[in-house]
Amino acid sequence: MGIDIKPYKDKDGSRKEQVTRMFDNISGNYDFMNRIMTFGIDVKWRKKVVKMIAETKARKILDIATGTGDFAVMLAQIKPDKIVGLDISQGMLEVGKKKVKEKGLEHLIEMVWGDSENLPFENDSFDAVTVGFGVRNFENLDKGLSEIYRVLRPGGVFVVLETSQPEAFPFKQIYRFHAKYIIPILGKLFSKDQKAYEYLPESAEAFPYGEAFNNILKKNEFISVQDYPLMFGAARIYKAFKK
Fold it and tell me: What is the pTM of this model?
């Protein structure tokens, strides 16, 4: 299962290849664009995830689709034994490695290249897995989720922060206007890859959210699945556990 939307519809390459190329292209100003697109609220959302992970007392954490390492760096605040940030984009990882080094966290955070659908880790390796705004970019969602389930230890927690769709008036209309018009305009003004900021809202609109994504998690054997709407449903946190 996956979303059949590509960033560069007029070019060759699988969705995974194109998404990787896209994130390589936008890695230099990705953090800046995130803050603009969400008015900085994404930082507050990430802190909620960090608090959830802290409550589980996880000692070894994997952050998938780590990008520039925002989640990995924030998770360092809870002082686990080890954090691994994994991403398929070398461009994003280079920015993330620089960030980790500048903050003096190289002893705690390891940034590695890897594919979410073929994780380079043994079974039952991590107490917690996080994904921030990344699951909708999985080429094969079920395969990616099954890999996450495999590397989690029994009883381990999986927490996802992902875009969602407000359903109530007027937030639904405001959100759609922002996604359809404002984000592409910001991309045109501040990014060298305008197509990326057309793809991101398109992929967000197509991705299953709320109960639909909860059911996908359950289908992939996760238990105690819960979701928490943020900002009237513009984003959601999903929390689930391995049996």
Answer: 0.94
Distance CA 115, CA 65 (A): 9
Which amino acid appears at position 81 of this protein? D
CA distances from 174 to 154, 159, 239 (A): 41, 27, 27
Question: And the tokens for 66?
Answer: 């780590």
**What was the pLDDT predicted at 2?**
56
Cα–Cα distance, 1 to 137 (Å, whole number): 12
Using DSSP bridges, classify how beta strands 152-163 and 126-132 pair: parallel, antiparallel or unpaired.
parallel
- Report the alpha-carbon angle 62-219-64, nearest 5: 15
Per-residue pLDDT band at 154 (split at 50, 70, 90): very high
Contact 23/91 with Cβ under 8 angstroms? yes
Tell me, what's the pLDDT at 3?
A: 64
